[in-house]
Structure formats: structure tokens, C-alpha cells
Prior knowledge:
The complex is a heterodimer.
Chain A: H1 38-52, E1 60-64, H2 68-71, E2 81-84, H3 90-100, E3 105-111, H4 112-117, H5 120-129, E4 133-139, E5 142-143, E6 149-150, H6 173-179, E7 184-189, H7 193-205, E8 209-215, H8 231-237, E9 238-240, E10 242-247, E11 262-266, E12 272-277, H9 287-299, E13 303-310, H10 317-321, H11 333-336, H12 339-349
Parallel strand pairs in A: 1-2, 1-3, 3-4, 4-8, 7-8, 9-13
Antiparallel strand pairs in A: 5-6, 7-13, 10-12, 11-12
Helix pairs in contact in A: 1-7, 3-5
Chain B: E1 6-7, E2 9-17, H1 22-35, E3 40-45, E4 54-62, E5 73-78, H2 84-90, E6 91-100, E7 115-119, H3 121-128, H4 132-151, H5 155-165, H6 170-190, E8 197-198, E9 209-212, H7 213-223, E10 228-231, H8 238-251, E11 263-266, H9 270-282, E12 287-291, H10 293-298, H11 300-309, E13 313-321, E14 327-331, H12 336-340, E15 350-352, H13 357-374, E16 377-383, H14 384-388, E17 390-393, H15 412-416, E18 448-449, H16 464-481, E19 489-491, E20 499-503, H17 508-520, E21 526-529, E22 532-533, H18 537-545, E23 548-553, H19 559-568, E24 575-579, H20 588-602, H21 607-610
Parallel strand pairs in B: 1-8, 2-5, 5-6, 6-7, 10-11, 10-12, 12-13, 13-16, 15-16, 20-21, 20-23, 23-24
Antiparallel strand pairs in B: 2-4, 3-4, 9-17, 13-14, 15-22, 19-21
The complex binds thiamine diphosphate, iron/sulfur cluster and magnesium ion.
Magnesium ion is lined by residues 67, 111-113, 140, 142-144, 151 of chain A.
Amino acid sequence: MSYLPKPKLHHPTLPKNALGYTRRDYEGAISTLCAGCGHDSISAAIIQACWELDIEPHRVAKLSGIGCSSKTPDYFLGASHGFNSVHGRMPSVLTGANLANRDLIYLGISGDGDSASIGLGQFAHIMRRGVNMTYIVENNGVYGLTKGQFSATSDKGSKAKKGAINTDEAIDLVGLALQLGATFVARSFSGDKAQLVPLIKAALLHKGAAFIDCISPCVAFNNHEGSTKSYDFVREHNEVVNKLDVILGRQPITAEYEPGSVTEVTQHDGSVLRLRKLAPDYDPTDRVAAMNYLQERKAAGEIVTGLLYLDPDPTDLHANMGTVEVPLNRLGDAELCPGSAALARINAALR
Amino acid sequence: MRALTATNDFVVKFANVNGSGSASANTLFAKSILRMGIPIASRNIFPSNIQGLPTWFEVRVSGEGHLGRRGGVDMMVAMNPQTWDRDVAEIEPGGYLFYDSTKPLPKSKFRDDVNVIGVPLTEMCNAAYKDARQRQLMKNIMYVGALSALLQMDPAVVEALLGEQYKGKERLAQSNREAFHMGRDWALKNLECPIGLRLSPLDAVGDRIFVDGNSAAALGAVYGGATVCAWYPITPSTSLAEAFDRYCRRLRTDPETGKKRYAIVQAEDELASIGVVVGAAWNGARAFTATSGPGISLMQEFVGLAYFAEIPAVIFDVQRAGPSTGMPTRTQQGDVLAAAYASHGDTKHILLFPEDPHECFTMGADAFDLADRFQTPVFVMLDLDIGMNDWLCEPFRWDDSRRMDRGKVMTAEELEAGKTFGRYLDVDGDGIPYRTYPGTHPSKGAFFTRGTSRDRFAKYTEQGSAYVDNMQRLLRKFETAKAYVPRPIERRAAQPTRDGVIYYGSSSAAMREALVALEGDGIHLDALRVRAFPFHDEVMDFIARHDRIFVVEQNRDAQLRTLLTIEGCVDPARLVPVLHYDGTPITARFIRAAIADKASALNVVPLRKAMP
Lengths: 351, 612
Ligand SMILES: Cc1ncc(C[n+]2csc(CCOP(=O)(O)OP(=O)(O)O)c2C)c(N)n1
Ligand code: SF4
Ligand SMILES: [Mg+2]
């Protein structure tokens, strides 16, 4: 269902966050996507997550490629700068933006065609570089915007709306992200807002490459019988390994849990990620085990969702490069231009 | 037998084996001549390989200060047996063949009309050194020693240079000095020194510097305030990014924290390189990439986006000949049209054409001001000849009162004060809108960047009228740029003429030399050096003032001529192409012959003679 096409009217009783903003302050333009498109639910979850985290909207930079999914940054965080770039190349644009100003929060939105087909290379390399960002793929197994062709995440054997069967092996972006060094890897489902919102929150707090593969059914082209990315299919085959609560320092711990059923991970910024285990043997801090588990369950036809891998102490591209703390885009002439005296020395050495 | 005689006016060519360590000896030879106050022009000619294949290094000694390639070889230093035959064949009659005479060669390997100078270099090295690598390296220094005696090079200058090169490494300096003198003394003792080609101290170098264009452009980027560089290795542009790294380490490291005031990404390909540049520039950093033709091809889509979405980007295109399996290590001005109209739809871009490393530096810095001012991609069009060869040029200059021109950027204060912000609104009538950096203000100034499907306030629309409105403004903006880009430089002929010549980039030195020679031939041409696209009005005035204009270029299809024809609506018949594109740098000899030839065919005669 679509959360978005509502008139932007401030109601005096709407709840406000610590910054005094209501959820409406995190909305964007009215969505032009099909009613019921999974992507709109993801936008709503992003709005909810940013509102709950008291993020100042203008401190987020939204970047996307091309596709229905990549259009969505226009539909949330209207007070943020956004960049609808070119097909499959959002990762490089985001990398550059991140290098220019390390102080903003970077949110990359992409589609399965955008990231797994045309943009697979850039997807791989941004994960390798550990760019501090939240990267969400709104995965519907088709090219929505070009009207329903199979994408590279479409499962082998999945049926197209017009009846064709996909014979190519699917690319699993979660598997790739794990292998390529992403330090936060999750999978979720646009139909499960309760699961998705805390995952987005945790990803936004994560100071490294955070990737969420969010299955997001395309009601126009891939929600039929025989598709493995339909609402019904995903609901039936969703194997949730854990449930996440994101606890910021100031929130009191209220709920009580069975001993041994809960893991807590403290992230670098102090936030606590509390994971209620549903798959008893699943350890989200073991990258290799995570990869094995995913392969196994995939072979069994299940779609594993939840927080799949977390390195609570990640490094990022800036740390690896050793750049200054001040954002590069704020450095002025004095910091950047060595001046005529240095040039005279350079000239002298060239004679 | 005839023996060429010339003082401070000859060409020495070194034929070496790639990877044999000859480069530093050859540079020592070249710099020593400069230190004697004699101008030189030097060029590397190398294949696309790392070791074992031939490389050549050519030094043109020119007391008159000609910096283009002359063509022809007066002395060949033949150190590569593989290329012996063609090297020997290249020597001018009466010229000199310098070779390693350790192993005797049959008479058939020589020419009767060439003076042969044999020095047993290998034998001397084997006697003096045990280590194989040292034998190899010192052999190179030894031939410099022998040449110094033959050509009357001042040994004190060589010693001084060795001292500077091995400052703090006295043992190395000493062993190099010894090798130098071994070669020199042997020549003085066993050969007739000097030969007909001689060096004589001059005072014609002045305060000029000797540097390659890629380093100069990289330094320009440092001075121009670039903080983000993204690149993918490709000859001949690689050394530009590497020089940026080198200069930044030295000049951009925070002295207190040791942290970097710059970021360099070696991207996975050129698509990513330009993507990083576009992202960084969108976010308010000055960013650039360096590449060559094949990379430019890959960057097309992003360049278009940057043009339409109005995002600054600086692209150093160090042009080379042909595709990857073409002649990647040979020079050409082959990307003029590809860069001018890069990408899909109606696009055109600012191009700068530096003539030498000095201009690589100034234009390298200016490119960032232009990119910010016009919020658009700017191409700096070097080529392999300028980029990878050391050129004698004016020293770099910097005015400390200069400040970066960040163009029209609306600040949080201005937004707060209620100033109207429309991302694509032409407030000042010059076609240039205001932009904001992401994160500027909590509630004002944010916008969603996309290509052209938006109105003046960056709101989504696919209306034709909004599209046309925007495209017209982009044209106005390009028109405004004409007055900001470097102006053309005109050199008038000694006497009034209706004929002109247009040239640009690395052809300039050869062109200047050719103009003097042509004047001697009685062909008088007004000459205009084009330094940028869009063309300044003066370019079109120049064309209007002349009946026929030669356009000298280093490509097959007369690309600048095409650009002039299209942009200036010039009758193509009036623009006569003079084209050199075999991968070697253009020479004055070539230009002179080509123009003289075409001039007689076209009946170009001095104006005075033409009048009854
Ligand atoms: C270079 C290029 N090639 C092709 C296209 C056409 N195109 C637009 S969107 C799209 C597919 C998008 O698929 P996906 O990323 O899965 O997004 P969705 O619409 O499914 O959300 C394609 C092929 C394009 N815009 N650019
Ligand atoms: S076509 Fe599919 S992906 Fe695109 S908006 Fe409609 S439902 Fe969503
Ligand atoms: Mg899709």
C-alpha cells in the first residue's frame, strides 16, 4: 500500500521528535509511482526512520540511479538535496559526494536493474571501498520503469507477467555485499515495515558501508502467480533470522527477554542494536557463517531476512585515505593554495 | 666525407632499450645543455611496453630557441642493436653515428656518408664494474661523458647536476661522476674532439623551466584548489594523476595532523572516475579526472548529465592516437570534436588548449574557476607531446591575491534573508543560475537534481516549453563563457596579407618556427593561436579579415576546422586544412612544406605583389 499521496497539512496534534519536527517534515513530493508499489512503502519507512532518529533532514544527501526506485528520493526528505543521476552509476556519484563532505549522511537508493544489471561493477566497488553510507536496493526482480523485463536478481524459474520463464541464474546482492566487505548487510521486505524501519535506522547509524536489499514487489509487472518477488511468494517464503531493536542511549530498556535469545551489539556511535534471535544458531557477526547460511537457505527456496551481518567497529573510506576532519568542500584558499613562495621553489627545482 | 658542422643547432637522437635505465642519463644530457644557457626541445618516443622494446629520446639543440620537433637526426646514439638498421638510416648525410664498439660490426652495417664514432662502452663498464645492473646504468652515464667531449659540453655543469640529483647520497654521486669522466677521458684521448656539432655557452634560457605538461597540469589543479581526483590509469594521462598525488603529499598534507587535504580515488573505470567527479562537484568540492580518448568515450553519459544538470567538472584529456590497440603512446589532437560535443542530445563544452606546460599550469588552475563559474564540464586538451615530454617554458607564476571563483553559490545567510532561490532561474541575464551545496539550510535551498525534466525551480515537469526555456538559457550561458575563456593570440605578418593561419595546442612551437621560415619563402601569414572553445569573437573576426585561412592540426579529419565551420558558419572552402597525424609531433618542416605547397596550388602570394 502507498503511504505517501497525502496532502501536506500540519496537524497540531501530530507527534514531534526531539527536533520539534513531525513526520510530515520528512516527507517529499507526492509519489507518482503505481498505487501499491513496494517502493512507496520503503520511502515511508525511510521517513519513519529519519524522524525517529531525530535526523535533521537537510543533513541527508539522497542519491539514486535510474528506475522507478531511483525516482523515490523525490518522495521523501523534501528538505534534503537529492540527485537522480545516471543508470547504474549512483555508487560513484555517492562516493564523490561523500569525499567532498564527510559530515553529511549519505543515502543511496537504487533498483535491482540499477545495481545488479547495469551497475553491478559500481555496486561491487563501493562496497569494497567501505564508503560510509546507507545503500538500499528496492528489489522487485524486474525493470519497472521500462515495463517489466527480467532483471539480474530475477530468480531462475521465475515467471514473467507475459509468461516467459527466466533461465538465467539470479545475482544475490546480499551475497556479494558480504563477500566484498560491506560492514552492515541486511535483507528486508517492503511489506514488513516493523522489520524494515529498525534496519534502516541501524544502517543510518552505522559508520561504514551499510547495505539493505529490500524486496519490493512491482504491482504492475511482477506480482503475479509464478513470480518469486510477489507479495504472496515473499510472505510465504520469508525466513526471518532475527528481530532488531535500535536503542539510542537515552531510551530506557523496558522489555524482558528470555536469556540467550537476545544479542546486543554496541555500534561505534554508542547506539545499541538488540537482536532477538529467531533462527537459534544465526550469528550476525560471523561473515563466513552468514554466507554459508544464506546459500543453504536459498537452496531450500527460502528468503532469509533480518540483520545478516554487522561489524560494529567498521572503518570507512575517509579513515582509509587519511583525509582531514574538516569536509574538503569547506577548505578555502589558505588551506588549498600553496602560494607563490612554494611555486618559486618548484620553479627553481625545474631549472 | 662531408661532416655536418653546426653550433647550438642540431638534433641528437638516442636509441635505447626500454627499461635499461637510459632515461636518467638522457635527461642529464638534456639538462646539461640547458644549464649552458642553450635552449633545447626534447621528446620521448616509446612503444606501449615496459621492457625490452625500443625507446628513443630526441634532443633538439636550438640556440634560436625553436621548441618544436625539427625532424631529421644529425647524430644518432645507437644503443639498441634491434633498431640499428633503421636508426642508422635515419641519420642525415654527413651526420654522426655514435655506437658501442665493443663488438666489431661488419662494414655493411654502416653507411659511407655518415661519420662513425665508436666507443667501447661495454668493455669499459665490464672492466670497471662487477654488478650487472651497475654495468648497465653506468654505461649510460659513460656515453654522456663521451658525448660531452665530442660536443664540447661543459663538464662542470654535468658535475653540478649530478651533485643536485644525488644530494645526500655522496657515494652515488661520486660513482656517477667517475663513470662520466671515464667516458669523457676515453673520448678525449682516443677521438678527435670536438666534432662538427658543438655546444657553445649562451644566455638564451633565462629563467625558463624544463617540465612536462602532465606535472604542470597537476600542479595547476593543486593551485586551482582541486580536492578530489578520480582516475583510471591510461597512457598518456597516468602521470598527471600521479603528479597530483606527489604534489599533494608535499603541499596539501596538514602539517599538524599529517592528514590529507585531498582525496584521490583510483576508480574501477572511467565511468566511475567521472561519476566521482560529478558527485564531489555537486557537493561543493573541486574535482577532476585525467584520461585519454578511450576514457573520454566511456565518460559520455556523465558528461551530458553534468552539462544538463549544471555540475562543474574538470577533465584533463591527454590526447593520444587511436584506440587502445591503436598507437596509445603516440601523440594526436584527435579528441577535439569528441570533447566539444561530448554526450547525447544538444551539448557543447568548454575546451582549453594549452600550448606548453606553462599553459597547462595556468589553464589547469583556471579550469576550476571556469567549471564553477559556468557550472559545467571543462576539458583541458593536452596531448601526449605536451603531457609526457619535458618542455622549456616560462616559469609558473601565481598571484597571491588571487582567490578561487566559486561562481554563483547561494549561502545559508542569503537563503535565511529571503533571497529567492530557483536552481535554474536566470537571475542575472547571463544564463548562469545559482546553486546551493547540499546541507546548506534546514528548510530553504534544497532541490532535486535531475537532467532536464524540471522547471526553473527544479520542480519535476516534462513540458516542452520548460525544456526549450532551459535549453535556450544553456545557450546564453555558453555565450557568456566566450568572454571568460582564454582569448586567442594573434601574431601579425611582417606585411599586410589576406592569408591567415589558425593553430592550437602542441602545434604552436612548430608553427612559430614555420612562420619565420615561410616569411623567408615570401609567404606572409597572419597567425592566430586559438586557446579555447567557445570561440572568442576575435576568432571569427580573424576569419572574416582573411580570404583564406590555413588550419593546422594533428588529426586526420580537421576537427578544429569542422568546429569553426559549424560554430562560426564559415564557408569551409576558406579554411584550408593542414594535417599531420602519423603519431609523431608535428614539425616546422612539415608545416612549411605543406603550406608552401598548398599556397602555390591556391596561388597565395604576398598582397603587394598580387596588386597590379
Ligand atoms: C544508460 C541507460 N540505459 C537504459 C536506460 C533505460 N532504463 C531506465 S530504468 C531501467 C531499469 C530500471 O530497473 P530497476 O533498477 O530495477 O528499477 P525499477 O524501475 O524496477 O525500480 C532502464 C533499463 C537508461 N535510463 N539508461
Ligand atoms: S512499474 Fe512497478 S516498480 Fe514502477 S512504480 Fe509501478 S509498481 Fe512500482
Ligand atoms: Mg527493479
